Amino acid sequence: MKPIPHPDLYGLMAEYHETGPLLEAARKAYADGFRRMDAFSPIPVEGLAEAIGFERNALPKVVFAGGLIGCFGGFFMQWYSAVVDYPLNIGGRPFNSWPAFLPITFETTVLCASLSAVFGMIALNGLPKPYHPVFNVESFELASRSHFFLCVQSDDPKFDRVATRAFLEGLGPVAVHEVGF
Predict the structure, then answer these.
(1) pLDDT tier at 43, thresholds 50, 70, 90
(2) Among residues 3, 67, 78, which one has the least CA distance to residue 33?
(3) SS3 for 176?
(4) Sequence-distant contacts of 73-80: CB under 8 A, at least 24 apart
(5) With helix as H, strand as E and coil as C, how does 21-74 read?
(6) H helix or E strand, kind and range, residue 79
(7) Which of 17, 26, 30, 88 is the most exposed place for a label (fewest CB within 10 A)?
(8) Statement: residue 2 has pLDDT above 60
(9) In contact, 180 and 24? CB cutoff 8 Å
(10) pLDDT tens, 104-132?
(11) Phi, psi of 77, rounded to the nearest 5 degrees
């Protein structure tokens, strides 16, 4: 079924006071077929990511690629300077004395992998994001202190303004809010 566009509506957000009902609501929403949803909580909730269908992302691959680039880049930088660009015969050792390159190679591997982790995390999270529609809900400011929220986005294929509201209200929230753009 093709989703009906809702240009003025980001989604519907159910508000809870405790983790248990939020987790149960997330599981029921996922089981009912909703896939475009997000949950907001002031504390980590065990199993919530799996309940909303969160899957692994590409960050480990980004970090691994960054580490490989750092490893080969660090080794190549030393090899090029010692063998090609400025060869010095010190103590009769060969120009390509690779064991001497290992400490710097290790350090560039760690540096590039950690920078890839930071910038990859920022990019994969879509940051910086100075505006998000959920901040239009007045009680959402409590999401960082004491309240829990489950938001079903309007671009979900199963989303219907009336039916989704009725479904969320049936999950026992404190309130259901419309999230406008």
Answers:
(1) very high
(2) 3
(3) strand
(4) 73/108, 73/112, 74/101, 74/104, 74/105, 74/106, 74/107, 74/108, 74/109, 75/101, 75/105, 77/104, 77/108, 78/104, 78/105
(5) HHHHHHHHHHHCCCCCEEEECCCCCCCHHHHCCCCCCCHHHHHHHHHHHHHHHH
(6) helix 59-79
(7) 88
(8) no
(9) no
(10) 999 999 999 999 999 999 999 888 888 88
(11) -60, -45
| Helix (H), strand (E) at residue 117 | helix 102-124
First to last CA, the chain: 24
**Total residue count of the chain as it appears in this document:** 181
CA 159 to chain centre: 23
Q: Which residues pair with 151 in a beta bridge?
A: 13, 38
Q: What's the CA gap between 49 and 66, in Å, rounded?
A: 27
CA distances from 98 to 9, 75, 109, 144 (A): 60, 8, 16, 52
The whole-angstrom separation of Cα 171 and Cα 34 is: 14
C-alpha closest to that of 49 among 30, 67, 71, 70:
30
Mean pLDDT, rounded, for 148-176: 93
